[in-house]
Amino acid sequence: MGVHMRFSAFLICVFCFLIAGGFAAPAHAGGITLSPQAAQVLEQIYSGDPDAAIPVAQAIEQAQPESPVGYLLEDEAEWWKIYCAACEIKWGQLDAWKRAKKPEDDAYLALADKAIALARAQLAKSDTAEMHVYAALGFGLKARLYSLREERRNVARAGVAARAECLRALQLDPDMADATAGVGLYNYYVDTLSAIAKILRFFMGIPGGSKQDGIRQMRIGAERGVFVAVDTSFYLARNLRTFDQRYEDALAVAEPLVARHPRNPIFQLLAGNLNAELGRNTKAAEYFHAALGTPDPDPDCAARVRDLANSFLASLH
After folding, report:
1. Cβ proximity of 227 and 20 under 8 Å
2. Closest CA to 137 of 151, 124, 120
3. What are the start-end ranges of the E strands in the chain?
4. What was the pLDDT predicted at 195?
5. CB distance 266 to 287 below 8 Å
6. pTM of the complete model
7. Residue 190's closest CA among 173, 202, 181?
8. Could you give the count of Cα atoms lying within 13 Å of 307 in the half-sphere of its Cβ?
């Protein structure tokens, strides 16, 4: 597959990372403040239990009805349920490539729209980097689902809106690590485009970028981000594998995710996939068996993980 990634997929990959979370971050970093309850939700999501995270996120919504945070967290939890259930193996790689529309999608998009509206209402009162990041996160959530449904125009609209919010956040706070990660992922992807996609990028007025700058900026987001640390690490590991075949470097990013969240089967599968690429079949099998042994309260995700892990295991023989 390499650099021949569909241009629509490029647009979503640039911006879809914008949602989500990180490790239990300091109370204040890069202009964003997380409450203990919000940090708890992120921890539950990335520990592989988004179902447990959803009622806590809803409690935040009730306690802080004018804040976008609870809605973003609830939608992030829903996204990981969607992502897991849609995952497939193509070209030896694990990802959620495509899914048809489903009735529950409307509720997912409504949560993102609610978060965007609340962030913009706060911005009307005070122009802050934090609220611009929250608005970007809402657009990123929408772009993720649109990409999965292959709705290219909707992906482009949501992606452009997310980018604008991210750039404005950096104007207000150049140290905003979550926004820096966004720019970094953009810079990485735009430098990996095929020749045809670069022509399309030119005519669409999308700026160029540098892969090396992107990697540096993504590392900043992974290390210092509040909402995007885990997602940035996840995408960095996948990108280093998919586009650069830098499996050792990718594994160095992925293994800390597993160490931090050993009950997340997606992280286990990613680490196993990278070890298999490196010919370390014994270690790869350990990760795949660990994914099989990870309890998942979501039946759709659990079934998908079993299929994926067993397929990977069969490929080792």
Report:
1. yes
2. 120
3. 28-29, 32-33, 87-90, 93-96
4. 52
5. no
6. 0.85
7. 202
8. 13
